[in-house]
Design goal:
The chain is built from ten helices and eleven strands. The protein is α/β, with parallel strands linked by helices and 260 residues long. The protein has a single domain (3-107, 180-257), classed as Rossmann fold. It starts with a strand and ends with a helix.
Length: 260
């Protein structure tokens, strides 16, 4: 059942309080437990908690500045924002105790909004670099089968490709690792409709494979059609947790929190 959540920040988790140590693993495949993150003094993630079942796709939605990207970056254990309190578990492993490279090695695959294609390297070299260390995910040939455009451009310098092709490469590079949790930050942003449809096809294929995924996307309707569940953030706090269909069907909710 969906929930409109009234969040009260406990005194023990007020700004500046050090993170607590974990006391045993959470039961869900993926869990965030009361995470609080900051850019300097700016308090951007304010007590976010949620669980995800294995194979579930969750759309993390909200207006600009609601804390969506900051939540993804906290899960991926990047330095900014700094997570000062809370626990993050993936397959019973404590991501909150890990640096970003350790979280990646334990199955977190982040496709950032800026894609971070490595200059001067070809498409294939970008993919090969992702597989330098274990654990390896999809083979490069399998990636070319899933992303035929990349196969056609394998020897092309990656940064000279179109924005849509670079987005495909960013997703393929994540899948080149052994991903347990795929984090997609604005995968459709700035892309032509024909490319958006192609990215959607790829993500539908990933969904059929049962890969646990969190997608942040301003095109909320597109994300909701892909997702099983929806979380809505407002000012760094979760205000809705329910099915994707509930958000599609609730125009008042969309207008209040998503302006659509």
């Amino acid at each position: 059942m969906s929930q409109l959540l009234n969040i009260a920040i406990d005194k023990a988790t007020a700004p500046g309080v050090p993170a607590v140590s974990a006391q045993g693993s959470a039961p869900a495949y993926f869990s965030c437990r009361n995470i609080h993150s900051y850019y300097g003094e700016s308090y951007v993630v304010q007590g976010v908690s949620f669980d995800i079942r294995e194979g579930e796709i969750v759309a993390l939605l909200g207006r600009n500045g609601a804390g969506k990207t900051s939540t993804l970056r906290s899960i991926a254990r990047l330095d900014d924002p700094q997570m000062k309190h809370g626990e993050i578990w993936l397959d019973h492993k404590p991501l909150h105790r890990m640096a970003a490279w350790q979280a990646a090695r334990n199955g977190v695959g982040l496709v950032p909004e800026d894609r971070r294609i490595i200059p001067s390297l070809t498409v294939e070299e970008n993919l090969q670099l992702a597989q330098i260390e274990e654990p390896v995910g999809w083979s490069i040939e399998r990636l070319y089968e899933a992303f035929p455009r990349l196969g056609e451009r394998r020897q092309q310098e990656a940064v000279t490709m179109s924005g849509g092709e670079q987005q495909m490469l960013a997703i393929a590079r994540a899948l080149a690792r052994d991903v347990k949790l795929l984090l997609l930050d604005e995968p459709y942003e700035g892309l032509a409709p024909v490319i958006v449809h192609e990215i959607e096809r790829i993500l539908e294929d990933i969904k059929k494979l049962g890969m646990t995924t969190i997608i942040v996307e301003q095109n909320a309707i597109a994300a909701l059609h892909l997702a099983d569940r929806a979380l809505i953030l407002d000012m760094g706090q979760i205000v809705f947790d329910g099915t994707a269909q509930e958000v599609i069907d609730n125009a008042e909710l969309r207008q209040q929190y998503l302006a659509i």
